[in-house]
């Protein structure tokens, strides 16, 4: 239950927390020094001791006061909790730990908690206030060495701004993005089960963040690169400092995740008869039923392992849950064992109805059932205590492609090696005794005290699985977002019914499909599937980076090869976390007779491109698809992406040359209508940015709008700063990490940065340059990240079709008008949802035409709701036009039979009526042309679905990281 406080009362509470913090410094620093090293402990002490003066100076503290209050009160709460377990005089280590176990907090999610001390309640009050603040401004709360003052940054040279970790650090920027994801879980306008999903998404993001980013930093730290990086810029964080700041920030996120679950989401779910129970809260009958379930379904799969000189520490898979067991044998000797929680078993067990016969859906985590029945695994022994923990292994494996004779074999080996990589994170609950934690740290290769993340006992380890609850929503649709079914693009409607070839539709003009508003199955998937069946298709070429299990795209390519077509597929084996799946796809395609390449040595192929060559009469026509997202029907339902279909000859030739580069030894820097990385993409973007700067200096129209997932390339960043100094209005819609800092006096005052987090994952990459009044539009697979521009094969296509340019412009305008899902970066590097930022947004719309109604609904109801409603409206208008066309056709047929009847009934005097009957085919083509050219107007939209990401995704996977 959320605690309500007035700002004055809250300020008083904050002052109390700040005053108490100095008394807690010694205890909190002791813990921090043990976990995080001396540097972080020192910085936390400084924050704690100065906090009271800061809050007094700020009055109620505003948003900053709330955020810093939480950071300080958390330290105070930890210190007071430690005080409750302080060692008594003359007490031995063993006696102290036994007493701690007795005094330890009750089980997670317990509704009958008896530990509600004044200190914990006070901490919850401050924490609840900070969660409320998260819907207005997101953390990070505080990081060692970060410069927030824009006036200070105005003294920096541009080159220092783009290299200084005090201005931008990739890891902290990524964690700030995850705060924005977590803020959706704090948003009470989001359906409650979707809020639960956002907690899970933020947790899965952290899993991959540690496996990928932290793993790479630990490699740098182990390699001793500290002295090398110091020469990079004015202020560069060492790997050790980065790891310390990351650990501090992650622990704060975990605290908020736990608080959201305990104080907000779980109680709200209870109101809907969905309960996350603890084993001790279940009735005796239900416990007996679970004990039987344990014996039949769980115990046979378990592998309890004793830890002693004869039994080495067991293998633990990455992201696996395990239980440390303290045992006392028949001779009263202390023993230690590990029980791994089997990954193949469902994490959440649905508990059958008890004798009360109510309709409550009850769920209990698998590890609790194992803990409750632990004595069955160690008969003859006394179970003293059990402690759940979780480990993460490094996924950043060093590879040497130059020495690999077979890339397929090398990647298969890497997948196997990753299972045994060093550990990068140990997650434990705050009730785990220090000597058990130390034992685990000593036993896990690569783990130090800094790598231990302490999770509040009130929440389960591994939040990422919590949205996998097998809930039956029944008629209670308020728990989740209303169902959205993607529609078929109007130009492809007849293709769906086999009335017309998809290639005929593309010949009528380029087609832009917008997922997930437009169906992937009836557009991109249909394009490949029809090509596989069409007897006139001679060749199909495609790139695969990520796709789904049992992928219909892979199946269609295999079918095409079986039908005798020439099929060439580039399967990127180095797609992080999808290596094993892609190895399997490559082997299947090769077995079917496809020509398979594994990528370009030294770079990843991240481009999304397909080429279909079709014989039409005496010539060969090249049909292409260029996309911003993967050929993956699963993510196409939750990622926002564009796909372009075209049979333009120049673009077709470009794609032919692209596949010559990917599949053979063809090198070509410039293309007619494509920009390709790593050949010249970075250089061409810099040239276009500099052209805008020159136009601004010459008094010509100059502006830039870019939409992407991440921006961290220093060269691009420097070019944008200089363009801003020249007077170019720059709008950056960047969902994730962003190196650019807006609002720095005399540097970036003309730059605005927006991040949109919502029901769908914003994923498309679109770029607009004003070009002196003749705008240029581009779309494709590349973010403006250093890795994308220099270490990946990326493809961006220029858009020439005016109607498609209008579609892109409308989408960009709607993004910039959004005041529901959009966060705006301030000059301090934080992201805000405030009236001030909305006013800025309004001011920046003058240069962009757009559609007023679409922008209005985006501003009031959110981008995703606006585009869903817009899609529905266009479908209704299309259906209306189809009905009119059908009626016209029927009338024409009746008129076709009319002349004889008319002549028979005509007056005997006067001329014979002349009935002009147009050809049915002419009428149909005329109506079809009007359908494609008619511009729809936007409706007055209905109540908002405060849209947000829904992820089986993970989101994120490759794109988030």
UniProtKB/TrEMBL annotation:
<feature type="domain" description="Polyphosphate kinase middle">
    <location>
        <begin position="287"/>
        <end position="462"/>
    </location>
</feature>
<dbReference type="GO" id="GO:0008976">
    <property type="term" value="F:polyphosphate kinase activity"/>
</dbReference>
<dbReference type="GO" id="GO:0005524">
    <property type="term" value="F:ATP binding"/>
</dbReference>
<keyword id="KW-0808">Transferase</keyword>
<dbReference type="GO" id="GO:0009358">
    <property type="term" value="C:polyphosphate kinase complex"/>
</dbReference>
<dbReference type="InterPro" id="IPR041108">
    <property type="entry name" value="PP_kinase_C_1"/>
</dbReference>
<keyword id="KW-0597">Phosphoprotein</keyword>
<feature type="domain" description="Polyphosphate kinase C-terminal">
    <location>
        <begin position="674"/>
        <end position="840"/>
    </location>
</feature>
<dbReference type="Pfam" id="PF17941">
    <property type="entry name" value="PP_kinase_C_1"/>
</dbReference>
<dbReference type="InterPro" id="IPR003414">
    <property type="entry name" value="PP_kinase"/>
</dbReference>
<feature type="domain" description="Polyphosphate kinase C-terminal">
    <location>
        <begin position="501"/>
        <end position="666"/>
    </location>
</feature>
<feature type="compositionally biased region" description="Basic and acidic residues">
    <location>
        <begin position="86"/>
        <end position="99"/>
    </location>
</feature>
<dbReference type="Pfam" id="PF02503">
    <property type="entry name" value="PP_kinase"/>
</dbReference>
<dbReference type="GO" id="GO:0006799">
    <property type="term" value="P:polyphosphate biosynthetic process"/>
</dbReference>
<dbReference type="Pfam" id="PF13089">
    <property type="entry name" value="PP_kinase_N"/>
</dbReference>
<dbReference type="InterPro" id="IPR024953">
    <property type="entry name" value="PP_kinase_middle"/>
</dbReference>
<feature type="domain" description="Polyphosphate kinase N-terminal">
    <location>
        <begin position="168"/>
        <end position="276"/>
    </location>
</feature>
<keyword id="KW-0547">Nucleotide-binding</keyword>
<protein>
    <recommendedName>
        <fullName>ATP-polyphosphate phosphotransferase</fullName>
        <ecNumber>2.7.4.1</ecNumber>
    </recommendedName>
</protein>
<dbReference type="Pfam" id="PF13090">
    <property type="entry name" value="PP_kinase_C"/>
</dbReference>
<dbReference type="InterPro" id="IPR025198">
    <property type="entry name" value="PPK_N_dom"/>
</dbReference>
<dbReference type="InterPro" id="IPR036830">
    <property type="entry name" value="PP_kinase_middle_dom_sf"/>
</dbReference>
<feature type="region of interest" description="Disordered">
    <location>
        <begin position="86"/>
        <end position="115"/>
    </location>
</feature>
<keyword id="KW-0067">ATP-binding</keyword>
<dbReference type="InterPro" id="IPR036832">
    <property type="entry name" value="PPK_N_dom_sf"/>
</dbReference>
<dbReference type="InterPro" id="IPR025200">
    <property type="entry name" value="PPK_C_dom2"/>
</dbReference>
<keyword id="KW-0418">Kinase</keyword>
């Amino acid at each position: 239950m959320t605690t309500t406080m007035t700002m004055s009362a809250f300020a008083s509470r904050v002052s109390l927390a700040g005053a108490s913090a100095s008394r807690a410094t010694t205890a909190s620093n002791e813990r921090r020094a043990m976990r995080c090293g001396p540097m972080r402990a020192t910085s936390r002490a400084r924050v704690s001791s100065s906090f009271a003066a800061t809050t007094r100076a700020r009055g109620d503290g505003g948003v900053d006061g709330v955020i810093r209050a939480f950071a300080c009160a958390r330290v105070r709460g930890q210190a007071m909790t430690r005080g409750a377990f302080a060692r008594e005089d003359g007490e031995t280590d063993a006696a102290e730990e036994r007493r701690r176990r007795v005094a330890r907090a009750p089980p997670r999610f317990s509704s009958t908690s008896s530990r509600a001390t004044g200190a914990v309640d006070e901490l919850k009050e401050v924490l609840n206030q900070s969660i409320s603040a998260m819907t207005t401004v997101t953390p990070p709360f505080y990081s060692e060495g970060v410069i927030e003052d824009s006036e200070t940054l105005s003294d920096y040279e541009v080159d220092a701004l783009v290299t200084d970790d005090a201005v931008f650090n990739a890891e902290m920027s990524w964690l700030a993005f995850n705060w924005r994801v977590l803020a959706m879980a704090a948003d009470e306008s989001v359906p409650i089960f979707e809020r639960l999903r956002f907690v899970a998404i933020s947790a899965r993001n952290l899993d991959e963040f540690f496996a990928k980013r932290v793993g790479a930093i630990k490699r740098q730290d182990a390699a001793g690169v500290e002295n090398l990086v110091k020469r990079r810029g004015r202020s560069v964080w060492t790997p050790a400092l980065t790891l310390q700041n990351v650990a501090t920030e992650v622990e704060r996120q975990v605290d908020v995740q736990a608080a959201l679950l305990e104080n907000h989401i779980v109680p709200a779910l209870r109101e809907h008869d969905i309960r996350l129970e603890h084993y001790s809260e279940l009735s005796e009958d239900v416990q007996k039923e679970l004990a039987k379930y344990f014996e039949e379904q769980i115990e046979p799969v378990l592998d309890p392992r004793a830890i002693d000189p004869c039994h080495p520490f067991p293998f633990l898979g990455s992201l696996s849950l395990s239980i440390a067991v303290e045992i006392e044998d028949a001779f009263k000797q202390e023993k230690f064992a590990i029980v791994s929680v089997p990954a193949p078993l469902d994490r959440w067990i649905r508990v059958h109805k008890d004798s009360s016969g109510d309709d409550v859906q009850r769920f209990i985590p698998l590890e609790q059932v194992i803990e409750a029945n632990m004595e069955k695994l160690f008969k003859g022994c006394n179970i003293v205590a059990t402690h759940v923990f979780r480990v993460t292994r490094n996924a950043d494996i060093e590879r040497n492609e130059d020495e690999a004779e077979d890339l397929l074999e090398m990647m298969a080996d890497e997948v196997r090696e990753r299972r045994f990589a060093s550990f990068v994170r140990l997650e434990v609950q705050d009730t785990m005794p220090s000597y058990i934690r130390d034992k685990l740290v000593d036993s896990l290769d690569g783990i130090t005290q800094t790598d231990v993340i302490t999770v509040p006992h009130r929440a389960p380890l591994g939040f990422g699985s919590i949205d996998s609850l097998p809930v039956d929503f029944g008629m209670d649709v308020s728990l989740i977002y209303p169902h959205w079914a993607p529609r078929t693009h109007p130009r492809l409607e007849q293709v769906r019914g086999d009335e017309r070839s998809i290639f005929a539709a593309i010949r009528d003009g380029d087609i832009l499909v917008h997922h997930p508003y437009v169906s992937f199955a009836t557009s991109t998937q249909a394009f490949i599937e029809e090509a596989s069946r069409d007897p006139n298709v001679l060749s199909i070429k495609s790139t695969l980076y990520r796709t789904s299990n049992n992928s219909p795209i892979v199946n269609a390519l295999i079918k095409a090869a079986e039908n005798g077509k020439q099929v060439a597929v580039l399967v990127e084996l180095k797609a992080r976390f999808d290596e094993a799946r892609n190895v399997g796809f490559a082997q299947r395609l090769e077995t079917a007779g496809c020509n398979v390449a594994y990528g370009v040595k030294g770079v990843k192929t991240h481009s999304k491109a397909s080429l279909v060559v079709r014989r039409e009469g005496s010539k060969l026509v090249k049909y292409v698809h260029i996309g911003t997202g993967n050929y993956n029907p699963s993510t196409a339902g939750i990622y926002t992406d564009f796909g372009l279909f075209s049979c333009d000859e120049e673009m077709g030739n470009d794609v032919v040359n692209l596949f010559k580069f990917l599949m053979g030894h063809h090198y070509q820097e410039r293309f007619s209508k494509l920009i390709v990385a790593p050949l010249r993409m970075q250089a061409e973007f810099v040239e276009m940015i500099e052209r805008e700067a020159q136009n601004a200096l010459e008094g010509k129209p100059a502006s830039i709008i870019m939409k992407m997932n991440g921006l961290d390339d220093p060269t691009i960043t420097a070019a944008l700063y200089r363009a801003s100094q020249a007077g170019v209005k720059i709008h950056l819609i960047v969902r994730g990490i962003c190196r650019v800092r807006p609002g720095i006096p005399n540097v970036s005052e003309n730059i605005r940065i927006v991040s949109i987090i919502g029901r769908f994952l914003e994923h498309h990459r679109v770029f607009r340059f004003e070009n002196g009044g003749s705008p240029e539009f581009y779309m494709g697979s590349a973010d403006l990240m250093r890795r994308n521009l220099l270490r990946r094969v990326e493809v961006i296509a220029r858009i020439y079709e005016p109607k498609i340019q209008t579609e892109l412009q409308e989408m960009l305008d709607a993004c910039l008008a959004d005041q529901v899902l959009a966060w705006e970066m301030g000059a301090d590097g934080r992201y805000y949802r405030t009236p001030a930022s909305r006013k800025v947004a309004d001011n920046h719309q003058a240069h962009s035409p757009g559609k007023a109604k679409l922008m209005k609904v985006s501003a009031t109801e959110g981008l995703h709701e606006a585009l869903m409603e817009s899609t529905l409206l266009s479908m209704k208008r299309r259906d209306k036009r189809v009905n009119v066309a059908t009626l016209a056709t029927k009338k024409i047929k009746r008129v076709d039979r009319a002349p004889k009847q008319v002549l028979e009934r005509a007056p005997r005097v006067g001329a014979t009526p002349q009935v002009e009957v147009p050809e049915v085919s002419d009428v149909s083509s005329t109506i079809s042309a009007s359908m494609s050219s008619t511009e729809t107007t936007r409706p007055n939209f209905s109540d908002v679905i405060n849209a947000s990401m829904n992820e089986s995704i993970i989101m994120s996977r490759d794109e988030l990281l």
